[in-house]
Amino acid sequence: MSGALLLLPFLCIRFGLLSILNADAVTRAAHFAPMYGKEQIAYWVYQLSTAAIFVGLFFLRVPLTLSWPVIFGWVVYLFGLVLCSISIVDFSAPSPNGLHQDGIYRFSRNPMYLSYLICFLGMALLTQSMFLFSAVILFQISAHWIILAEERWCSQTFGDLYEQYKRSVKRYI
Question: How many angstroms separate the CA atoms of 144 and 38, rounded?
Fold first, then answer.
């Protein structure tokens, strides 16, 4: 099976489900906080690593066997898709003040980024590709810097409300 087929459910959830639930949320999800210095480099590494993951999957295959590595890859990938779906549903219904604190956001400040990491790791496991695994690692390192910029922006935008949220909910899990 072509690795590119793994992108279809991910993209349908990430963009299709979000646009069905709340078209304005697509724009919010695509918004990046202002970045400075190394954060700008991280932004480009994030974009390039995402492109590498997406393009790389067109050249990779998923073995259709029932070996433990493949089964584990499917479990990780599907868990990532479920987590992404839950994150998208919760993100599509923001609170009146604009700060997401309900649903899955009670457990993680960045469930969408976490779901992307898990889903992409599942893809790397399924394709058994060190190239894809390396791209996923670069993706996550750069995403962390983007998250730090977002946290700074949230602190400036939401003030004490965000600082309290930050103290009570972990960045990832």
Answer: 12
